[in-house]
Amino acid sequence: MPPSSATAPAPRPAVALASLRGEKEFRKVRQHGQVIRHALFTLRVTDYRPRYGETWQPRAIIGIVVPKKTLKLAVKRNRVRRRVREALRTLPTLPPCRATIHPNLAALTAPFGELQAALGKALAGDFKARKKKPAPTQNAAQHAPSQKNAGPTS
Asked: Does domain 16-125 correspond to CATH entry 3.40.50.2300?
């Protein structure tokens, strides 16, 4: 019989948390994701679709990217990764999605509750997402008026 002072474990979120694996999955998020910028991180989010041959299980597949350019010391990069991973793990609910999180330097020193609340809001869609502009097509460039050969009109 467990002692009465033991606390009950936190309830598991309805959506499981998994990691992005392989360059192909990161590329999909980079190409098709919506960008959400915050003072603590940059988030790219796409809808959840199961991997090839996988059964439909709604889950959040998230990759945490901390380049050396952002944080030079490996100790600090690892600490930011651990803080973000724990903030995601302890969120009450996660939407089914694929995402990459790029923490900024401020995520290292921000209070944990603030980091957790910002990630929760961003994943819930409370921040404005910046849509990617479609790439100009080749036909549009051909039909645009050219200023190169425009001479004086006198």
From this structure: no
Q: List the structure tokens of 68.
A: 């050396």
Residue type at position 153 = T
Give per-residue pLDDT as tens, 53-74.
Answer: 878 887 888 999 999 998 999 9
Which of 76, 85, 92 lies closest to 112, judged by CA? 85
Q: Provide the pLDDT confidence category of residue 85 given band limits of 50, 70 and 90.
A: very high
Which residue's entry shows tokens 């959400």? Answer: 36
Closest CA to 100 of 83, 81, 76: 81
Instruction: Give the chain's length.
Output: 154
Indicate the residue type of 82: R
Give which of 99, 85, 91 is closest to 120, Cα–Cα. 91
